[in-house]
Amino acid sequence: MRRGDLHLRATSSLSAVVITVLVMLAMLDVLFPLPLQNLRPKPSQIVFDRNGRILRVFLAPDDMWRIPVELDSISPALKRAVLAHEDKYFYYHFGINPVSVIRAMIADMSAGRFAQGASTITMQVARMIEPRERTLGGKMVEAFRSLQLELKYSKDDILAFYFNLAPYGGNIVGVGAASYLYFNKSAIQLSIGDAALLAAIPESPNRLRPDLRHDSALKARDRILCELVAEGIISPDQKAEALSEPIPTELCSLPFEIPHLSTSLARTCRRSDRITTTIDADVQRLAEEMLIKELVPLRSQGISNGSVVVIDNKSCDVLALVGSGNFFDKASHGEVNGALSRRSPGSALKPFAYALALSRGLISPLSILGDVPVNYCGYSPKNYDGKCLGAVTAKDALTRSLNIPAVNLSAALGENGVYEFMRRAGVSTLPHPKEYYGLPLILGGCEVTLLELTSMYSGFANLGDFRGFRLVTTDQLPAERRLLSAEACYIVSEMLAGRNRPDLPVSRELAADIPKVAWKTGTSYGRRDAWSIGYTPRFTVGVWVGNFNGRGVPELVGSDAAAPALFGIISALEENTNGAWFVEPPGVDHRQVCSVSGMPLSEYCASARDEPCIPGVSPSSRCDTHQMITVDKRTGYVLCRHCRTGHDCDERIVEQWPVEMATWMQRNGYPVDRIPEHNPRCPKVMAGCAPLINSPQANCVYKLRRGVETDYQKILLDASASNRAGKVFWFLDGELVHCGASTQRVFIEPKLGVHFVVCTDDEGRSSEVRFSVK
Ligand SMILES: [Zn+2]
Ligand SMILES: [Zn+2]
Questions:
Q1: Which of these, 114, 159, 120, 161, lies nearest to 138 by C-alpha position?
Q2: pLDDT per residue over 552-608, tens digit each?
Q3: How many CB atoms lie within 10 A of CB 115?
Q4: Which protein residues have their CB within 5 A of the ion that is ligand 2?
């Protein structure tokens, strides 16, 4: 046999052995697969902020604290300490270190038992995922598991498994949880001293817990530091510095931020271990501090709670969500999440009625709205202070939060009003059909949550795109949900940004440094809720203040109770921005309107004001309040083109108001142009405005209450007549029942059945309504 053959045979028999071993290993691997689920046990559920900061950690299902960390998020000091202490040749062996196995075997034989560990980090991982008795058989299985691990995973993977599975005493598993609970740090922030302590603990976790066994832990740490110097891993100076560091004497508490949101998210996202919220921890802290500060003076007035929501308009991300003033305050139900509580919005919905009316061309900012008593089939809204202003601009009506113009606008919007708008914007708290809420909806006769209301306002800031909001970064929002025109949103924002208004908090009036903000306050019926919601192009901030038990307090007014926190938060948020305002959309133009009627100028208007408008949409008919009349110099009668000829006459410009406003103004002593009667000899009957019957309401059904004398159940006859009219005549079922001044109120006795009432003025113009009595 030649030498070459021998070599060849030896090589081939060696490869046969290797192949046989590999085949056996592969078979064993199939027969006894690694318990993979134990490599990555169910961790603690962790809630993060948008920048990866831990906001809240929950116990894992087996009551352990586990905060998984990647290898590159672990301090290099800890990696070096663990490698030096546990397994110097970790990166060079195949899971088992033959040198130390032989050394251990000799030691074991001489001791007559298994004394020496000889465990590599891989073997320790194998033991952690499958704890066994320390017998020879146990060791064999451990060695086999180590080979499996080494074949399946990289060295770094195995080291990461070690760091995440190692026990650190009690129910603390892995360096992630240990770093937080012992040092209140993340694993990347550990010092050399911290690292030495954490490298020591897993060896005997319950004996070396620093919070319970201070001296043993200190000794173990110092021993490791000595090892590290001996190995040349740290310098003597570093050692001296580390030795001087104290070791923890008690456990730190884990982060417990945004408790309301994190608790509810943990419940709804039970399946996910890591919940990355859209919250910005800095903004959250700012909102919490500002709310707590503003609640201090309110507590003495019996107002105990509040909530705040901050939304980043561009992304629709919720940056802060404060559920209550103090989560732990049991007496004021601090655990309730006020941002998700359903409350009456008070006046906070009004801007949506104005925006819808602007976008449909029903109004422009200076349009005159009637603020006079109205009656919608028995419903007559009253203003906050019970007074009326007669005629106000839309802008003033909105910023002064007048109820009557808001209800009138809401009624004018008809079938496609604020209710439909809210449903389309995704408001989830309107369970009933529209009829259930009726016209009082716009005054807060419904429920909203602060979160959804703030999100609705951020739709204004997004110039009509009402996409909703996100709390978790994995949530998908629709690309766009355009519910209003950019022009209407821009104009409403301008209307809401004025400073000269009653709900600007007193303390802020002098502060010139607040950025330009569009805002609205609201106070619910019975003063149970105070709201303040405001926005800039970047942020929308919503503040609610009140009591969770719904107790009303006289001091609870949106402007006083909730607006200071709103301005405080917005000012702080905008401090480092350039405070830019919205860019005027190209569809917005500016025009001159009559300063009395708010309508485009006619030749008779005396003065003008400037307003933004939407060409092609905004009301375009010219001022008809200022009219030119011709008066007979001798008789004083008004003349028209049919009866003017042959008279000596003067021309005069007068203000002519709609009948209901004219009547109200006359009744309330406002100076109203008395327009003389029309020339009785005129061949044409004037086709002007007929009287407007305010009561009884058309098609109204009056229900007689039994047992009450009809004398106490009389029906009011009330009409508004043009200021040209002198007298009105009332007919009930064709019979004249009264004749007198239009400002006079008349009552009739109700009779069962269907009736019709006619009101005629002295120029022959008449209106009629039908009503019934049951
Ligand atoms: Zn005018
Ligand atoms: Zn005439």
A1: 114
A2: 888 787 778 888 999 999 999 998 777 789 999 999 999 999 999 999 999 999 999
A3: 13
A4: 640, 642-643, 682
CA of 597 relative to ligand 1 center, distance in Å = 5
Query: Any bridge partners for residue 307, and if so which?
Result: 544
Distance from residue 662's CA to the centre of ligand 2 (Å): 22
Ligand 1 centroid distance, CA of 599 (Å): 7
Backbone region of residue 38 per phi and psi (left: phi > 0; alpha: psi in -120 to 50; beta: other values): alpha
How far is CA 473 from its chain centroid?
15
* 656 alpha carbon – ligand 1 mean position (Å): 10
Angle at 527 between CA 523 and CA 532, to 5 degrees: 30
For the chain, list residues with pLDDT below 50: 115, 510
Residue 495: exposure state from Cβ atoms within 10 A (0-12, 13-18, ≥19)? buried
Compute the distance from residue 765 Cα to the ligand 2 centre, in Å.
14
User: In 3-state terms, what secondary structure has residue 467?
Assistant: coil
Ligand 1 centre to CA of 647 (Å) is 28
In the reported structure, the alpha carbon of residue 621 is separated from the centroid of ligand 1 by a whole-number distance in angstroms of: 11
Nearest to 417 by CA among 366, 461, 359: 359
User: Nearest-CA neighbor of 229 among 84, 89, 131, 354?
Assistant: 84
CA of 594 to the centre of ligand 1 (A): 4
Residue with structure tokens 């510095």? 241
Other CB atoms within a 10 A radius of the CB of residue 186 amount to: 19
Instruction: Identify residue 302 by its one-letter amino acid code.
Output: G
DSSP 692-736: EEEESPTTEEEPPPTTS-GGGG-EEEEEE--TT--EEEEEETTEE
Report in angstroms the alpha-carbon separations of 579 from 48, 493, 517, 563: 29, 15, 10, 19
Q: Which ligand is nearest to the CA of 679?
A: 2
Residue 543 parent element (H or E): strand 539-546
Taking alpha carbons only, the member of 202, 144, 178, 164 closest to residue 26 is: 144
Per-residue confidence (pLDDT) for residue 101, from 0 to 100: 74
| Ligand nearest to C-alpha 683 | 2
Amino acid making up residue 396: D
Looking at all shown ligands, the one closest to residue 631's CA atom is 2
